[in-house]
Structures
1.
Amino acid sequence: VLFLIIDGAHAIRERIGLSAFDTLIAQAGTLLASSRGTTDLATRYGDTSYLVLCPGRAESELVRFGEDLRGIFASRVFEIGDKSLSLAIAVGIAPFALGWPDASSIVNAAERACAQARGEREHKVRVYEPSLAIYANDPRETLLREIRHALHHDGFHLLFQPVVSLKGESEEKFQVLLRLRSPDGREHAAAEILPLVAGARLSDEVDRWVLSRCIATLSERDRLDRPVRLFVNQSIEAVLDPSRARWIAEQLAARHTEGERLVLEFRFGDVRAHLKPSAAFFESVRELGVRISLSAFDSDAASIQALSYLKIDYVKPAARYLVSSELAALKQLIEFAKSQGLLVLAPQIEDARTAAALWNTGIDYVQGNFVQQASTGLDFDFRASAG
């Protein structure tokens, strides 16, 4: 069995729209059907993947067939309306020779091999290795499979937590939080998900999924005449992707949404390690009106020097500053930030005592469960809070 998936399908769908994307997938299926052998059976499996059953081929033949299919897809130009597109695919192979108890097992093995292939930079055809079964019951491997399934089947969801001004401002701002619900009902936070995402080289896909949903949310709120500003976490992979700024511009234009409603947030440590590309990326997206926030900021000399090199809008102090014993250091950090024209946001404020301690430090905004628990809705009375 061969498991085929279209690389970057989510980004393509967001760029050309759902209707055009369905047409594209139908054309891709037709191409696959015309490329199979006379004894092969092919079917669509999920939104952007296909299965091919090859009962008469040895493993070496399956690998050659997978490579041939990649070449066929890469060389084909798909005409969708006024757009011309080519598609890249990854292929996972599960040979019958390994022996399988049922159809589900062989399909799962082919899908796992395909996921491994997608993580490779060059070798996009991968044969299932029985050694991978050692990790089948590893909770991390289980969660990683759920992450991949969520990407293919739109299975993530977003929560929103209000960001409240301590200066009387009533603009509606929300921090966006990524979540994944397992089949057993357990909800996984971003802190669990993202390390696995990075290790499997899926950061690009997850970043784009989150950002496209947020831009759609901004568009819907504009349509309802209830604009909001969303703080959206992104990985450093966004900075290092030369096509990302253009993709964001296309997403904003497609949704008729103003870039100033969007705040992209990055961990300061990651940015400091990639100062030059970060500065270039920030400049590109700021031309679209998009704002930049840096989290986990530390005010040591090297950090302050790095910050002076970047054009940003918001900083979030590192967690160590948000305790009563560090208020003096926090005030110094805030004074420096204000001297650079930056706004300061205190995240993860959980109780009234911490909020009260921050009141006179010069902090501009607070966010956390003390303000309101994160929820799927964008419901919070910012006017009452400002009052």
2.
Amino acid sequence: MKFADAVDGLIEAPIVTSFSNVGHAVRSRVDDWRPLWSYDMRHRTVVITGPTSGLGEAGARCLARLGARLVLVARNPDKVATVAAELATRSGNEHISTVVADMGDLDSVRAAVRSIVARHERVDALIHNAGSLFNERRTQPNGTETTMAVHVVGPFLMTGLMLASLGDGSRVITMSSGGMYSVPLTVGGIEMHEDSYRGPTQYAIAKRSQVTLNEMWAERVPHVRFHAMHPGWADTPGVADSLPGFHRLVGPFLRTPQQGMDTMVWLAADDGLPAETTGKFWLDRRTREIHKLDRTRRSDTPDRRQRLWDWVAERAGWDLP
């Protein structure tokens, strides 16, 4: 066993060391990571959702510096315009554009895709990063619970509608969460009822769905590289606002947004493993198992997987031909 593999195994076993800034610091050294600033993305078009704060903003800043043709997709027109202007000024990158869209609103997603494909013949990387944790149950106009709509149904529809622009070797990257390890794959309870609603649990259900669908996309669309990942425990406005107790408890061990977004940008930029593999789940530039508990592993059956795909496709109003 290589020294780096042994060290990674020791760090991975306890969640605290794996997900915290300790895991990032140690792994980046023992694996001798290539610095992100060394990548050249001047000839790649990258679409990223949720780029106005947290991990998405940190990732967009890095991608702008690397020269990528960036398309920033966000629901707030003022915020995304401000971020785009700032990125252009700081990076000198003249190829940054914006599209206003709410990922939970399917009509908005369709309009966003029409705008993107009209401007870009090929998209090299589509990064699904937008999302929030809601402590009170909300629904979208079509009746879908908002967490599932924003994290699962909207991204599913965007990916499907953009397949013609995602050429051979293009990448679809989904920002998931380690919280998905706590819940089984479910379809019957995929939208929690109002009387039993818990925001963190609904969020974890959505994240489990993302990771499962990532594997299914990879099986069904082989010319595109599909990757899901989680950033570890990162210090973002969303964590501070939605999980204040957790934020206070583990504050000193939280990763910076720059540490949290590292694997996301690496998956978009690197032509080694990210170009050679598909359907994987990543943390700190290494593939990880999608189950840590026997009860979640037992839930992951072919029947439930198919039912998940069918449910999302029905809500999105789109399916593979």
3.
Amino acid sequence: MRYDVVTIGESMLRLTPVEGQRWEQADQFQMHVGGSESNVAAGLARLGQSVAWISRLTDNAFGRKIARSIAAHGVDTRHIIWTDEDRIGTYYFEPACAPRPNQVLYDRAASSFSRLCADMLPTGLFVPGASRYLHVSGISLALGAPCCEMIFASVQLAKQAGWKISFDVNYRAKLWTPTVAGAVCLKLMQQADLVFLPFRDARTLFNIGIGDQEIGHLPEEFATHALKALAQRCSAECIVLTLGQYGAAACTHQGVCYSPTRAASVVGRLGGGDAFAAGFLSQWLTGAPTLTALRWGNAAAQLKYTIPGDLPYFESAEVAALAKQSAMNDVNFR
């Protein structure tokens, strides 16, 4: 079977206190399935792309729950590596309520995915014509040396098979330091054809950027400056910079373009960046203009914010309609 995109990554169970309680108060938790790469896979499948997800899961009720939840969106999960050993990773999330910020507590050490080594990869999948893109993220690179080596090995297998590489930097401060993350992520960025990163990651890892409030005055000029600086460090076909509430911009060989976004009611912010990547990729894969891909990315993220959980329960027609509404303020630069 030919895929548009193959993703590799860890999905965990997310536990969130009910009724806005704090961890210390809570006796009941809501359970959600979430993982950056599987969120992207689910979004792409819902937007009409053919997608497979590679991971390693413990063969118990929790592992099967994760696999079934992702497969329900139309993602091919037949390439999961199952094991009777190790454990499913979990994380606890305490949503923000001003002035309190979001809180995240990981419990993923020695998870089944963190022990996915390069020699466990389904090498028979990595053949010419099996997929157009491999999508990976910096989260996997942060999960220890074996996992990091496995991601770089998968990238090499994909490139040898003639696939292109999509890479979301996805920096997580609780997993590694900016210095180490910057060096490792830059190494992978230099092998990628398509790169996604938030402006905060550009600033934290690569010392590119300005203050959050300053971006609001001149988002187009900031994006142009940041993207051109990033383009000097890697030769990706396209670098996409997300700007939070101000939208997103992209740099290609044709120049820089910027698409603003609109405010959305926030019910579930987690997974918004993954929804953006799915929306962007869904159009990039069709050969649509970069601005169209940015509009779809913004629209997908807006819709995800209105949905609880990590996974993107939206339809292609919804994303298309919202993207169409936002075209009037787009900007092309050279």
